[in-house]
Amino acid sequence: MNFENNLAFAQALDQADPIRDLRQDFLFPQQNGKPFIYLCGNSLGLQPKAAREVLDEQLNNWQNFAVEGWFEGETPWMFYHKELKKLMAPIVGASAAEVCPMNTLTVNLHLLMVSFYRPTASRFKIIMEAGAFPSDQYAIESQVRFHGFDPATAIIEVAPREGEYTLRIEDITAAITESGDEIALVLFGGVNYFTGQWFDMEAITKAGHAAGAVVGFDLAHAAGNVPLQLHDWGIDFACWCSYKYQNSGPGGISGIFVHEKHFSDTTLNRFAGWWGYQEQQRFKMEKGFVPEAGADGWQVSCTQVMPMALYYASLQSFKKAGFIAPLRNKSKTLTSYLFIIINEVNKALGEEQYKIITPLTQADRGAQVSIIAKQKGNEVFEQLIVNNVLGDWREPNVIRLSPVPLYNSYEDVFTTGTLLLDISKKLLK
Ligand SMILES: *Cc1c(COP(=O)(O)O)cnc(C)c1O
User: DSSP class of residue 150?
Assistant: First the structure.
């Protein structure tokens, strides 16, 4: 497509956008009586209007049924997670049995590593991306220590080459192959939170399996953002939070994926709890843990109805959109437009003031564009906020902008470019 840097062109794209109306399902924060252009859905997605209604419904169930709510009402709590499983499955490319909503992300990362990081004296290493989200670094370090190994020798980090910002797939697979028989676990992000790079998850999985390792992914920035085929790619396990691209609210419930090939493996360790016990027998309260089949068997505590209700509300917009494919189509164009717009700003300023570090290739990124501001980045970012554009700031000089296909428009992207240019002219003159 030949993009044009003008309002009429942006508005024409919005007119032709088959899912433009989904924007109306969300509540935008306001400043001085005007809604923000919200480009921060990679950090916390917007509130769906349906959230309050769904939450209210569950508060009513609690009020009207109290403890009987577990088995009564339109959505008995005992089985409520099954409604979510059906909606989560198409988002990550899995069967409903392979996914389950539970806990929060880092907690699930730990629980899944208990099952899938099973180091031996000779095969004990974990391979991961350098500069992974800190929670993942801490979780992995502490798991390694828990098993009596030293993170300095047990963790292999794959870093970008000198002068580059993103990872090359051949470097990732080479690192896996090189330490092949020492690697117990390959644990990568799906989309890197800082650069927005989407890794070739299928290639990583193949390389990991060829080396004899287990392969897992943290999909915090990938789930609800890019099309995933966790089952077909043969990934062993994954987890994600639902409050970023999936709009389930601050601290929203996490989702896990366990590949069906592991369902009958009785040797897997688990940190078990009563809610992972076989559903039909759970209330017999018997001694000796017997897991429910599938991802449900990793549940620990009783189901979190309120956070699940919020996730349910937001999953309804994905359903309305037709799940990931239509969203991804729009996302690719939106993000490409943002690339063009930022380049236009640089051109108008006569220098590369904003260096894009997100991969240019659509297949290597999701709905995020990260830019390094060469000068006064913090002030530029603050001025964007003053002018009703809410992106997100990462020290020391990175601005992340995420046009989210569910609720952002081409006009949002165009206007952001115009403001960025005006602000830069004022601050940098
Ligand atoms: C956002 C994010 C987290 C946050 O974890 P919580 O347990 O939900 O606080 C963890 N890992 C990655 C990669 C993230 O992007």
Answer: -
* Tally of structural domains, the chain: 2
Q: Which atom of ligand 1 is nearest to the CA of 241?
A: 8
The preferred substitution site among 110, 133, 195, 402 for testing ligand 1, maximizing ligand atoms within 8 Å of CB, is 133
* AA letter at 144: V
- Position 139, amino acid: A
Q: Establish whether 133 is an annotated binding residue.
A: yes
Tens-place pLDDT, residues 382-425: 999 999 999 999 999 999 999 999 999 999 999 999 999 999 99
Length of the chain: 429
pTM of this prediction?
0.97
Domain of 369: which CATH number? 3.90.1150.10
CATH number of the structural domain spanning residue 215? 3.40.640.10
Is 136 flagged in the annotation as binding? yes
Taking a C-beta distance cutoff of 8 angstroms, is the pair 123, 183 a contact? yes
Q: With contact defined as beta carbons under 8 Å apart, do 100 and 236 qualify?
A: no
Residues 212, 181: contact at Cβ < 8 Å?
yes
Asked whether 154 lines ligand 1 (CB < 6 A), one says no
